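Researcher: Predict the fold of DNA-binding protein.
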Amino acid sequence: MENDDDKLLTTEQLASLRNVPPSRIEKERLKGEGPAFIKDGHLVRYRLGDYRSWIASKQRFTSTSEQAAA
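Model: Structure tokens for DNA-binding protein follow.
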């Protein structure tokens, strides 16, 4: 499988990948809480590799009590 980390995703495509509404992606972008993005004029795009890195940087939990202690 070739590396597709440079593939650019729209907000809608990223939302679909994450199974969340596009408005959540937009809110995270506004707050600086989501993955890095690229602006080209008025267009916003996300590199698939940046999304993968962002997900990998998230804390992982095995139970909700473990999450509460973090």
